[in-house]
Amino acid sequence: MQIRPLTPADLDALAEIDATVESARYLHLDRGGEGLNLQLRIEERPLRTKLIESNPISDEQRFAVRQIATGADEGTALVAEHEGTPVALLVAQPQPLHGTLKLIDLRVDYDHRREGLATAMVYQVIQESRDAGLRAVAAETRANNFPANQLLAKLGFELAGLDAQRHSNHDLVKEAVTLFWYLALD
Q1: For 95-149, how does the pLDDT look when each residue is reduced to its tens digit (9 = 90+)?
Q2: Where are the beta strands (DSSP E) in the chain?
Q3: Could you give phi then psi for residue 50, rounded to 5 degrees?
Q4: Can you tell me the distance from the alpha carbon of 66 to that of 56, in angstroms, rounded to the nearest whole number?
Q5: Nearest CA-CA partner of 122 in 154, 145, 167
Q6: For the chain, first and last CA: distance in Å?
Q7: Is residue 137 part of a domain?
Q8: Does residue 13 sit within a domain?
Q9: Of 35, 45, 74, 103, which one's alpha carbon is 20 to 30 angstroms from that of 29?
């Protein structure tokens, strides 16, 4: 297994990484209060039905990956390779206005999960962020992607906010709230 920078030659093989999200748990958001007296409580709960959701790379992510791999944009794109085949991808872009590096995508092939690839790749971009003098690494997940939330929490990221209506007006009901995570580097 080798982690290396992504090259333009790798772009076509990225679609073969099976990044299916599978989870039986989620982070439940309980909201109380009114107006500015808002109270939030987040707790781990079982999903009503086990989540098995295809997670294809989006057009926006594909564009960012291409721009970084070809050198047209700043950022980091890492690929983990097993026997000549990409099995994991991490894409991150600096956000100079905020002094952060934002993780755009992190995917590990279904057959290569729980091998430490995601952890190693995230640690690598954390070190690159420190070396660049950035103040934090940022990431977004959905509340029902429990494995991603668990990984970020394990790596020291703190939950910094949420958006209960990012994808629809019913994300809270559908257990799909967008969560914002930050890892302070200073």
Answers
A1: 999 999 999 999 999 889 898 999 999 999 999 999 999 999 999 998 889 999 9
A2: 2-5, 21-32, 39-53, 76-82, 85-95, 100-108, 136-142, 158-163, 178-184
A3: -60, 135
A4: 16
A5: 154
A6: 32
A7: yes
A8: yes
A9: 103
Helix (H) or strand (E) holding 119: helix 117-131
pLDDT at 121 (0 to 100): 96
The enclosing domain of 105 has a CATH number of 3.40.630.30
* pLDDT for the residue 174: 53
- Report the SS3 class of residue 16: helix
| Distances, alpha carbon 178 to alpha carbons 3, 91, 92, 109, in Å | 29, 19, 18, 23
Contact (Cβ atoms closer than 8 angstroms) between residue 51 and residue 20:
no
What is the pLDDT confidence band of residue 171, given thresholds at 50, 70 and 90?
very low
Number of domains in the chain: 1
In a domain, 21, yes or no: yes
For 157-170, the pLDDT digits (tens) are 999 988 877 665 54
The verdict on residue 154 lying in a domain is: yes
- Rounded to two decimals, the pTM is 0.87
